[in-house]
Amino acid sequence: MVVEVSTSKTGKHGHAKCHFVAIDIFNGKKLEDIVPSSHNCDVPHVTRTDFQLIDISEDGFVSLLIDNGNAKDDLRLPTDDNLLTQIKDGFAEGKDLVVSVQSAMGEEQICGLKDIGPK
């Protein structure tokens, strides 16, 4: 997610430059890039999809219900302690939970939680 953009003036030997500061949506790390203002920039396509949580395995993987009725079993629990606790506690209490999964550039991660009530 881009949080800051600044542009330098055209120099004696080249183009004006754009300085981008961004925060990685998956790990929170700060990233920076400087590119000529006349060049194109690649922009990732980010999607967010909600899935009902079916199960949590002992090795930290979750089982999610896909719209077609199949299970999605290739995602791990999130690393964010607050979200992890909410998911584990809600599941242990028998609540129906829906997790939001953010996808971009071949990566996926659970980024949110909704409680849709008791089972």
UniProtKB/TrEMBL annotation:
Q: Name one GO biological process term.
A: positive regulation of translational termination
Q: Which SMART domains match?
A: eIF-5a (SM01376)
For this UniProt entry, the molecular function terms from Gene Ontology, in alphabetical order, are: ribosome binding; translation elongation factor activity; translation initiation factor activity
Q: Which UniProt keywords apply?
A: Hypusine, Initiation factor, Protein biosynthesis
| Record PTM | eIF-5A seems to be the only eukaryotic protein to have a hypusine residue which is a post-translational modification of a lysine by the addition of a butylamino group.
SUPFAM superfamilies named among the record's database cross-references: Nucleic acid-binding proteins, Translation proteins SH3-like domain
Which CDD domains does the protein's record reference? S1_eIF5A (cd04468)
Domain named Translation initiation factor 5A C-terminal is located at 45-114
* InterPro entries hit by this protein: IF5A-like, IF5A-like_N, IF5A_C, NA-bd_OB-fold, Rib_uL2_dom2, Trans_elong_IF5A_hypusine_site, Translation_prot_SH3-like_sf
Entries under Gene3D superfamilies matching the protein: 2.30.30.30, Nucleic acid-binding proteins (2.40.50.140)
Task: Give the function comment from the record.
Answer: Translation factor that promotes translation elongation and termination, particularly upon ribosome stalling at specific amino acid sequence contexts. Binds between the exit (E) and peptidyl (P) site of the ribosome and promotes rescue of stalled ribosome: specifically required for efficient translation of polyproline-containing peptides as well as other motifs that stall the ribosome. Acts as ribosome quality control (RQC) cofactor by joining the RQC complex to facilitate peptidyl transfer during CAT tailing step.
- Would you identify the family this protein belongs to, as annotated? Belongs to the eIF-5A family.
Q: Entry's PANTHER family?
A: TRANSLATION INITIATION FACTOR 5A FAMILY MEMBER (PTHR11673)
Per its record, how is this protein called by name?
Answer: Eukaryotic translation initiation factor 5A
Q: Which gene encodes it?
A: EIF5A2_2
